[in-house]
Each structure stands twice: as structure tokens, then as C-alpha cells.
Amino acid sequence: xxxxxxxxxxxxxxxxxxxxxxxxxEEYDLANGLHVVLHQDNSAPVVITSVMYHVGAKDEQxxxxxxxxxxxxxxxxxxxxxxxxxxxxxxxxxxxxxxxxTTDDRTYYYEVFPSNNLELAIWMESERLMHPVxxxxxxxxxxxxVKEEKRLxxxxxxxxxxxxxxxxxxxxxxxxxxTTIGEMEHLDAATLEEFQAFNKKFYIPNNAVLVVAxxxxxxxxxxxxxxxxxxxxxxxPVTRKHYEEAPITESFKTTWEDPNIxxxxxxxxxxxxxxxxxxxxxxxxxxSYLSDGKSSKLYKKLVDDQKKALQxxxxxxxxxxxxxxxxxxxPMGQTTEEDLLKGIDEExxxxxxxxxxxxxxxxxxNKFESDYVNSNASVEGIANNLANYYLLYGDINLINTxxxxxxxxxxxxxxxxxxxxxKPNQRMVLDYVPAKEKTQN
Length: 441
Description:
Blueprint: H1 2-20, E1 26-29, E2 35-40, E3 46-53, H2 67-74, H3 87-93, E4 97-102, E5 107-114, H4 118-130, H5 136-155, H6 162-170, H7 184-189, H8 192-202, E6 208-214, H9 218-229, E7 252-258, E8 265-273, H10 278-291, H11 297-305, E9 309-318, E10 322-331, H12 337-353, H13 358-375, H14 379-393, H15 398-408, H16 411-421, E11 427-434
Parallel strand pairs: 2-6, 7-11
Antiparallel strand pairs: 1-2, 3-5, 3-6, 4-5, 8-10, 8-11, 9-10
Helix pairs in contact: 1-13, 4-9, 10-16, 11-12, 12-16
């Protein structure tokens, strides 16, 4: 009874916090199609200015991969009014910090400044959009930067090519079949004109959302946004081809060799629906149930109790068009892949044939309530969420309502979705193994 009361208290506390944390925002469009979102937060004298462009690795050509990630770097090179190499100096000299990141679906740039530097941040982001300098010296410089990044984070990193090994086998026609960082030979072969054309096509106001979040005067912010962004001409609307993958109806196996590892990794991967679907959110809950923390089903069974795995995990790699559901494991000692898959399948079968316990269901609900609170706990997180929900989900108010979707997911739905997507005949099994030593003649 005491445990039940404690759980009820926790749930009520989290529910109260989430209700209190409702994110207020204002949104409008400029005549050139730029969507603007404003969120005031006076808890600290800082302001985040961010721009998210609806361009990612999936918008590239098969022989020119890596462009979107390349532009994440290239658009810090300089503009008509910001000399080459001066971008970071200006930010630092004014007490700010900035960064950018790229996925298969979008590219995100942001600055964090003391609130009295909002005009500077708005001007800099408008410069990036209106007056980028894309020349050969910038392309050559960033080409070397990206190559070094790939060497450090992918080529020389244990299991660094895991995502590549999975994606190129899980997708046959969709551009998700290549990685965000791309292939270096594609960047080497690209001409300056190709980079300039990519910029002209995708880095346009009507393919972006501007978010200003933090401490600022709304009327003044709107005036600066109009002054610096309104003169930017509207671009040709981006049209995207729809790619549909044939369903996986028979299990298949593939292998990848990695010279940086000594212990193999075994991966079972299932194709899943868009992150915008309810089913994708159910799969997120299933991932948490199976492998989040040491008390999760797969970890407790295969790592703690049976000691067959050094590590095990499950996650739903959600994207705008499709997702991939990963279950990976590192074997302990002489444990075979078949033995690990058997243990994994036993837990999935339980999900497919039995309802999870009320206690486990309550634990899941509490975790997702907590995750929701944490995702909106900082103004930086709110700015990112506002941009994501507008640009990729098409429903910006999900920043306040997505938690209601998770709250409404039932134990019966968890069982149904496990049956729908996690069948053995609908998966790829990847043996990610140490590279074999080449014999000398």
C-alpha cells in the first residue's frame, strides 16, 4: 500500500509539473514564407535565436551524399558582411555561443546570447541566409574539416559504421540508405557550382523556421526580424519525391567488418513508420520497457541473470518518413548470436502475447512524463522542440500535447504494435564483426 501511495504521489507531482510547464508561443509568417516563432522566458537574461532548414541527407543525390552536413560547416565560413573566419570571433566577443547539427531530415543552427544581443543574433542568421559566401577556398577548407570529423567519429571509432551498415541494407530506394556524413569521394568530386546550386535550392526563407526564445521585448524582436529577414527573397518552393519501400516479409542476414573492434555486435533491425505516427510513439515505449536501465527486461535477463551479454539495448530510430527499430547486443564469452536472439525473441513474444504488468505500465508512464519535463526544462530545449514540431511534424502545439499521446497509450496497444512491427520475418540480422586479418602471400 505504501508503494502504491508513493507511485500515486509521483504521478500527481509529474502531472502537476507538466501542466504548469505549458509552453506559450506566438507564430506568424513573413511575406517571403519564413515562419517565425516567439517564446518568452524571463527566468534568465539570455536569448536563443535559431533557424531550422528543411534539408537533410535525404535531399541529396546518390552520388553527392554529405551535402547537407557539409553545409552545416560551410555556412559558418562567412558572408558578404562577415569576413571569413570572423563568425565565431563575433559570437565569442559578445558573450555568446553557437552550434549546428544535421540529420537526415533537417539542419539546425542556433546562437545563445545575453539578451541584450538579440539584434546581433537576428542579423547574423539573416546574413547566413541572405549573403552566404560560397567560394572555392571555403569549400576546400571545410572539405578537410569534414574528412577529419569522419576519421575521428566514424572510421576510427569502434562500431562507428554501425548506422551505415544498417541503413544501406534496410533501405533500397529511399535516400535514408546513406549516412548524414556521406561519402568523401562525393564531396571531392563536387564542383563549386553544385554547392552553390544546393544552397540556392534549400536555404531559402520558405524552407525554414526562425525561433527566438528567451528574454526579449516582443515588439522590438518583431521589428528586427522584419528589418533583417523580410528583404530576403522567397525561393522556388522545394518539391520532394515520395519514396516507398517494399515491406520486409522475410528475414535476411548481412555482415559488416570493423577493424576497430574485438567483440562482435549482433543487431536485429525492423523497419518502422514515420516518427509522426502514434505507432512510432508506442515503439518508443516498447524500447524503454525492453532496455532502458538495469531493471529493464532484456538487460535484467541477458546481462544480469543469464550473463550472456555484456551490453544490450533497443531503440526506435525515428525519422520523418520511416524509422528503424534496433535491438543490439554484445555477447559475453562464447555466447552465440543464436542464443542471444533466442533470449531477445522470448521477451518480444511475451510482449506480443501478454499485457505488460500494471506496475511496468505505471513505470513507463512516469518515465515519459519525466522525459517530457526534461525536454522543456531549458530555453534551448524549448527552442529546438518548437522548430522540430513545426517543421517536421507539422503541428507546433505538440510541444504541449505530445505527452497526452503517450499518456493515452494503453497496454493493449503495446501488445498490438509489438505484433505489427517486431515479427522475426520482418527484420534484418546484422553481424557487425571484427575485421579478419589479411594473410600475407
